[in-house]
Amino acid sequence: MPETEAALVVRRAVRAWLAAYAAPDAELAVALSGGADSLALTAAAVAEAGAVHALVVDHRLQPGSARIAQAAAEAAAELGCASATVLPVEVTGPGGLEAAARAARYAALDGARAGRQVLLGHTMDDQAETVLLGLARGSGPRSVRGMAPHAEPWGRPLLAVRRTDTVRLCADLGLEPHLDPHNSAPEFTRVRLRHEVLPLLEDVLGGGVAAALARTAAQLREDTAVLDDLAAELLATARTAGTGPHPDLAVHPLAAAPAALRRRAIRSWLLEAGARAPGDTTLRAVEALVVRWRGQGAVAVGGGTPARRLVVERRHGRLTLRLRGRADGA
């Protein structure tokens, strides 16, 4: 590795992450796309960690993708990776192309990591884009807190590194990163944030916007971690012995708790029962069964089966989960 400014920035970030989240000389995997961020991450990981295994996902969404993936695997070998594996995937499923590709990618990485932690090349710029998307969707602090540097088995050492540094490091190493055409396609919201919104904000506000958004995300992660711990205690207090497969929740301790903790506890309860990630409208409708009880009917919370939907009802001072026929309504 050359001792350039970019090399020092990226290596220090990887070194700090390893000190915080990895055992000494642990074997790691790196998700390598062939782009500048993942190439720079791979080079720094090889320099700072023990054995590094590159995992290259071929989404097969464009002509020549197999060749691009193979080139990335060859670059990993040249950088000193212990192994480089190409993982072809089928991109199908709900949520649009971006969501389906993400789901296929993470599933392939998880299946091939062989118990190792997987390093991902998300940078400060990616974090800023994620925070802006969360703000625009009005998803609350859980979304605005952005990506975590460590969420087993995923690691993101470069969240404090700018994309310009990864590009510079690739140039210092004589590497030619692959430029994914999807990363410049304006039909994707994230691409427009990257090329239009963030540059405009940087210009209007005099710079430092990406760093400020990343700091905001870090602060919110710390705050929400505390709230989540308190909500877990509330949930444990509210659990009762229900008649179904999931414990009921006693209304009284929920009603006495602050709203922020109450909704967090309800959200965790619903997710444990197999509900789809509940949005704000659903959470507030369930909360109304606790704090604005007027004898209203059940609230559908997503999940269940094609024939029967998962609903929450209030009965005898408890919140109860039930499967109801879809024709019954809720």
Which terms would index this structure?
alpha/beta; five-stranded antiparallel β-sheet; 330 residues; six-stranded mixed β-sheet; 12 helices; 11 strands; single chain; 15% strand
Describe the protein in words.
This protein has 330 residues and is of the alpha/beta class. The protein is 52% helix and 15% strand. It has helices at 5-21, 36-48, 65-79, 96-112, 124-137, 141-144, 163-173, 189-205, 209-238, 251-256, 259-272, 280-291, and strands at residues 28-31, 52-58, 83-88, 117-119, 150-151, 154-155, 239-240, 248-250, 299-304, 308-315, 318-325. The strands form 2 sheets. It has a 6-stranded mixed sheet, sandwiched between helices. A hairpin with a 2-residue loop joins β10 (308-315) and β11 (318-325). The model has no long low-confidence stretch (mean pLDDT 90).
Quick structural summary:
The protein has 330 residues and is an alpha/beta fold. It has helices at 5-21, 36-48, 65-79, 96-112, 124-137, 141-144, 163-173, 189-205, 209-238, 251-256, 259-272, 280-291; strands at residues 28-31, 52-58, 83-88, 117-119, 150-151, 154-155, 239-240, 248-250, 299-304, 308-315, 318-325.
